[in-house]
């Protein structure tokens, strides 16, 4: 592990990081393309925004309003609040013809995400949502192609070069592990949660 990466950061990289990287590979977008990320302030979304921005992809993400400044600071161009009725209209104001692709991270967001993708675009889902294609939109589950070691090496390189900031909301002690699990299950964690085995 490079000196600039802590053990806590290293432990937080693999699953969300690999999922974010593989999601972008499955999306297969080009610089200048537009991407909607549904559930953008969680563990996967906070990494996807940065990886996409680094590849010249323009990102709009959904999250609660309180997390919007955070999404913008990571590189999203715009943020919408999934809890207000007009969020799809706000995306259409930004991109009147719709976005080229959507990444549905939070469970149950794939169908709504399809509504703001332009005809012939793509929806990639990581949550396992099953939706039927409409308007010739390609619907795909995120594909696993890289080994975990390859993915982690790529992500660590980006972190060392300060192109990727790993967002860690909280480090819990081992005794608090169930609290961490409960927080994850809320679907409202900002970035990663880590459980540390170190003695306080
Ligand atoms: N395919 C794979 O290999 C793989 C691997 C890992 C994970 N996953 C999947 O990825 C998902 C977990 O991802 P994650 O931990 O990054 O995030 P998550 O906990 O599923 O979602 C967090 C994000 O969703 C937003 N959100 C909460 N409620 C919402 C709602 N009702 N509608 C729309 N957005 C909502 C949150 O915003 P606020 O907090 O601002 O409200 C936050 O931005 C799970 O579905 C898991 O199964 C798949």
TrEMBL record:
Gene3D superfamilies (alphabetical): Medium-chain alcohol dehydrogenases, catalytic domain, NAD(P)-binding Rossmann-like Domain
One Pfam assignment: ADH_zinc_N_2
InterPro entries, per the entry: Chloroplast_QOR, NAD(P)-bd_dom_sf
PANTHER family reported for this sequence: ZINC-TYPE ALCOHOL DEHYDROGENASE-LIKE PROTEIN C16A3.02C
Protein name: Enoyl reductase (ER) domain-containing protein
Native species: Planococcus kocurii
């Amino acid at each position: 592990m490079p000196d600039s990466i802590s053990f806590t950061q290293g432990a937080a990289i693999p699953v969300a990081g690999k999922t974010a990287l593989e999601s972008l590979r499955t999306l297969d977008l080009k610089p200048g393309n537009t991407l909607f990320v549904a559930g953008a302030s969680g563990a996967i979304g906070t990494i996807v925004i940065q990886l996409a921005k680094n590849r010249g992809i323009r990102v709009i993400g959904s999250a609660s309003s309180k997390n919007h400044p955070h999404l913008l600071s990571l590189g999203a161009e715009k943020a919408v609040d999934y809890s207000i009725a007009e969020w799809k209209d706000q995306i259409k104001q930004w991109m009147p013809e719709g976005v080229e692709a959507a990444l549905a991270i939070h469970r149950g967001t794939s169908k709504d995400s399809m509504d703001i993708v332009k005809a012939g675009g793509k929806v990639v889902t990581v949550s396992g949502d099953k939706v039927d294609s409409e308007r010739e939109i390609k619907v795909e589950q995120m594909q696993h192609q890289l080994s975990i070691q390859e993915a982690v090496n790529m992500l660590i390189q980006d972190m060392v070069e300060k192109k990727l900031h790993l967002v860690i909301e909280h480090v819990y002690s081992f005794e608090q592990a169930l609290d961490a699990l409960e927080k994850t299950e809320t679907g409202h964690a900002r970035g990663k949660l880590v459980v540390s085995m170190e003695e306080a």
